[in-house]
Design goal:
Layout: E1 3-5, E2 12-14, E3 18-19, H1 28-40, E4 45-47, H2 55-63, E5 72-77, H3 82-96, E6 101-106, H4 112-119, H5 124-133, E7 137-143, H6 147-155, E8 161-165, H7 177-184, E9 187-191, H8 202-210, E10 215-217, H9 224-235, H10 242-256, H11 275-279, H12 281-287, H13 290-303, H14 312-316, H15 323-338, H16 343-346
Parallel strand pairs: 3-4, 4-5, 5-6, 6-7, 7-8, 8-9, 9-10
Antiparallel strand pairs: 1-2
Helix pairs in contact: 1-2, 2-3, 3-5, 8-9, 13-15
Bound molecules: iron/sulfur cluster (2 copies).
């Protein structure tokens, strides 16, 4: 498997990483087998987060006994303040069973409010710098769903890496953030490279990203065959044909009208509806155990009934999505998915 230097860091990472969300759905032995299988395929870069329930713990178990230099670990904390951030980091270290984490990221810095909080006195950024000085973290990074905010963050020069949604449908990062990362030598992790499980054609989706030699996609997988397919694409690089480029244009047109980029520009909704979560129901259902998705989402889904169809959100959405209609459609998908959920699981 080809390896690349990750931005200006001294990390040498495989051309693809493994995203740590879907292993939440697996039992511990299954997850451990999967992670070890992925490492055997030559993937040495694993990205997870403190918020992904037992993902770190399962990865920790899988890498026990693996020489520390053979694996590049990335994780994230959603904390706003320094103290909680450092608690999260200690938890990540403990769960992963390591002395240091290669890349630790401020998770989801997507709003100005979160930006202000993390950069405040005693904010999470201070904690991150402290952790780098203490040797608990080798490189600081961040993830975001907001491309404009991410570009501003990239330009601060404080971070070694950026993680943004980037795939053949969600191309907002392509014009500025992607070339900027290359120019200033920041590592770039493409979040949701196969659309959070929404793109069926993994070959097209991955090969689209592989056109950029400095970007590392981190697909979340739950079966070794999925990673084998991706690794084959990396090992036998085939540029997209004209026919496939046309296919992608068609796909963009088809999916674009319903594709939520999770940027949250539509917020705040006066009724408190968390629009992007509701519109991402299919992706959550694909990636999370149903019980966990239920705990995480059901309240947001039930809130949709309070939508007054004021369309304030529509006027703010840069992608002109028909939000009230899409909310209803997603509630139908949700209701069908939880129809047979054991009542005790709903408790
Ligand atoms: S249309 Fe519905 S979801 Fe959108 S802002 Fe109004 S109440 Fe909120
Ligand atoms: S509905 Fe539109 S504005 Fe809201 S998160 Fe999705 S893409 Fe962004």
């Amino acid at each position: 498997m080809e390896r690349i230097r990750f931005g200006r860091t001294d990390l040498t990472v495989s051309r693809v990483a493994m995203g740590g969300i879907p292993i939440m759905r697996l039992s511990k032995p299954e997850a451990v087998r999967l992670v070890r299988g992925v490492l055997d395929l030559g993937v040495n870069f694993i990205d997870t987060a403190t918020g992904y329930t037992d993902s770190e713990e399962k990865i920790g178990e899988a890498i026990r006994g693996v020489p520390r230099d053979n694996v590049v670990l990335a994780s994230k904390s959603p904390a706003d303040d320094r103290k909680t951030f450092l608690q999260h980091l200690d938890l990540s270290l403990k769960r992963l069973g390591v002395e240091y984490i290669d890349l630790y990221q401020l998770h989801n810095v997507s709003t100005r409010k979160r930006w202000d909080a993390v950069f405040a006195v005693d904010g999470a950024f201070e904690g991150l710098m402290e952790a780098v000085r203490a040797g608990k973290v080798r490189y600081p990074g961040f993830s975001s769903h907001s491309v404009p905010l991410a570009i501003e963050l990239m330009k601060t020069g404080h971070f070694s890496s950026v993680q943004l949604p980037f795939n053949c449908i969600d191309t907002e990062a392509e014009s500025v953030a992607v070339p900027l990362a290359k120019e200033i030598g920041m590592g770039f992790i493409a979040m949701k490279p196969v659309g959070g499980g929404m793109l069926d054609n993994a070959s097209l989706a991955i090969r689209y990203i592989l056109q950029y030699d400095h970007i590392v996609p981190d697909p979340g997988i739950e079966r070794i065959e999925e990673m084998e397919e991706i690794v084959n694409l990396v090992n036998r690089p085939t540029p997209l044909s004209e026919e496939e480029i046309k296919q992608l244009d068609t796909l963009r047109k088809e999916l674009g009208a319903e594709w939520c980029h999770r940027c949250d520009y539509c917020q705040p909704c006066p009724e408190g509806i968390h629009i992007s979560s509701v519109l991402s129901v299919k992706s959550f259902l694909k990636r999370m155990p149903l019980e966990r998705a239920y705990q995480f989402l059901n309240e947001s889904m039930r809130k949709v009934s309070s939508c007054t169809e004021c369309r304030t959100c529509v006027s703010r959405c840069p992608y002109e999505l028909s939000i009230p209609e899409l909310l209803k459609k997603n509630v139908q998908i949700w209701d069908k998915a939880i129809e047979n959920l054991n009542p005790s699981m709903k408790g």
